[in-house]
Design goal:
There is one protein chain. The protein is mostly helical. It folds into three domains: 103 residues, Endolytic murein transglycosylase (Dna Ligase, domain 1, 2-Layer Sandwich), CATH 3.30.1490.480; 83 residues, no CATH class; 146 residues, no CATH class. 42% of the residues lie in helices and 8% in strands. The protein contains 13 helices and six strands. It has a two-stranded antiparallel sheet with strand order 1-2. A two-stranded antiparallel sheet has the order 3-4. Strand 5 and strand 6 form a beta hairpin. The protein is elongated, with a radius of gyration of 32 Å.
Length: 360
Amino acid sequence: MAVKVHESKRGKWKIPVIIITILVVLCLVGAGIVLREAGSVTVEGGSVTLEVKDGESTQSVADRLNDMGIVKYPFLFLLQSKLSGYDGKLQPGQATIENGMSYGQILDLLVTDSRNVTKITIPEGYEIKQIAQKLDEAGLCGWQDFYSALNPKDYDYAFLKNLPQRDGLMEGYLFPATYEIPNGATAHDIIDLMLAAFDSQFKSEYYDRAKELGMTIDQIVTMASIVEREAENPEEMPKVAGVFYNRRNAGMKFQSCATVQYILHERKPVLSISDTKIDSPYNTYLYPDFPVGPICNPGIESIRAALYPAVTDAYYFVLGKDGTHIFSATYEEHLAAMNSADPATSVDSSAIENQDSLKK
């Protein structure tokens, strides 16, 4: 027998069901909003630096982030920290919170002690003095401390063995790169970091290639430093290296403007004849073959160019008006190229009197 439900009883169930449905929808919407906010915080200006105090609780950090308008739901931040096992494990120091980070990403950042670093970029072609100045300005170490720590005997790397005596012994080996330097690092620590970067980039096959060329590692780095300063375009570096190897093999002087600029302690746009006559073991206008050492800290592209130069019949090059170099096989071609080149070329054309002046 069918059981009939009175309409009055059905009506009584309709209202609670509707209310429950509305509440569920509201909860889902609310949860969606909360999860969206937790998945992508908004930081005015793109980023903000948070200083976590030594021993500071997760609750305190959550409250401060809430006051800063970054974490809108501190309870959810705390819940995530507990579920992740991060509660009470926040590391002291500065942390940069970027716009769009999630609560989870912020927590990952705050429990990482390696974040207590200063990021600094050393460009290719920087000299030691420029590196020292940049580190000093960044507050990482004083330039005097940096210079005091530049003793090859204090570092255990094969490429530092048996360097010829000269000023700036470690010029060329402080590898240009972007470094994350831990706060509190000493000048020795920073130099060791740069030497380690050079060591990792200068592969074992490069040592074999240097022997194949009949050159020391120091000569390779010296050639790379000249190429680095003479050719800003990586695509031209192998050909520029080829020119200097051609000059060397022909018994010609390098006549590299960059070596004279190193002596002058400035990147003088146009060298005078008197500049090219300065008596210095770095002056490749006066002395044949390599200068006494590197003139800057070269990048990996110029190092590769020094190891694997292009095969070319060129003995000369000059910067053209379009920013690329004009390469010439003869001195007459070179003179014609100079006449049509960038007037702001790095050497006064009168400094090269004739082709014979390049020879020993």
